Amino acid sequence: MASRSSLTILTHVTVWSLFGFVLLFYPPLTWNITVPPNFWVKQALNLVIMIGVFYANAFFVAPKLLFERNGKVLFVMWLVGVVACFLIVARTIELKLHVLDQMSRIMNKAPKDPFRLDFHLFMIMLLVMVTSTSLAMAQRWQADAQTRERVEKQHIASELSFLKAQINPHFFFNTLNNIYSLTYSDIPVSREAILKLSRMMRYVLYDTLSDSVPLRQELSFLKDYISLMALRLHECTTLEFEEPAPDKDYWIAPMLLLPFVENAFKHGSSTMQHSRIEVSLKVNEGALSLRVFNHIAHEKDGYQLDQGGIGLTNTRKRLDLLYENKYQLITRENAEDKTYEVVLTLQLDREKAGQIAEAV
């Protein structure tokens, strides 16, 4: 911070030095006369006044008047008044330092009319005020952009929290129903299922607080979920699970893949007809590919798998928020064969994403 502040000050000093030299000090050096010392004093005083007015306008007057509803008229009056006052003060300095008299003697000309407009100085001061006002407007636009960015990040953080709050109970209650069914048929297996659920809920409650989790951890959670759901599958339902072996350490948004798999078990398991559930996961050079296929064994009237349910709808929103332009989601529903397929391709991150709340 200190080095950045020093750099900013150095930049301002450099710009003002170049400005003063080019517009105030260099032109007299090109004249074929010897300019008296009082003239340089006058030029230096003009530059100091310009600098003071520049920063007063940029940081105080323009932000207060220019962006107020009824302040534009007052700002125009301020602008005209400042330029006029500067010209009066500059001419007063010339008279007090006797610059006009000395210059007329050196140039062998009659003294200038003290009430005549100094057009050159007028244009320089107008340039200073325009630049100062432009700086104030740029700072305001930058502040507004930062505010919009903070609001957008806060909105994303709130929406993601809401989405995860919806997904987690949705998953939890569905899994409890599965365990409840197991308690009637196999108590030891139901106990094992409760242990798995306990481990999974620890992940849901604590590890998903961050915006991203290690991919291996997410895959372990998904594997536990699949093995838990497999415990209650009827023999009519065939389950195929292809587990990936990531080549490197990657990070992923927590519980992002679960709704696709959960949807397959919810609508693909059957006790009356042959059905198949396929879950294939591949990770290669930072690209994750998920394919979930299932027969539609349970479908309510008018229910669209791609649109219905809390999990899938919110997962689409999370993908849009977190992986914009970094994912491709394809869904295929075959009404004749009564099958449903989801193919997700996602570009993973090699580094952990910072929490949105901290960024705000």
TrEMBL record:
**Keyword tags:** Kinase, Membrane, Transferase, Transmembrane, Transmembrane helix
Which InterPro entries does the protein's record reference? Bact_2-comp_sensor_kinase, HATPase_C_sf, Sig_transdc_His_kin_internal
Record domain Signal transduction histidine kinase internal region: where: 159-235
Q: Does the keyword Repeat apply?
A: no
One GO term in the molecular function aspect is: phosphorelay sensor kinase activity
> Where, by residue number, does the polypeptide cross the bilayer?
7-27, 39-61, 73-93, 119-138
Pfam families (alphabetical): His_kinase
Q: Which GO terms describe its cellular component?
A: membrane
The name of this protein is: Histidine kinase
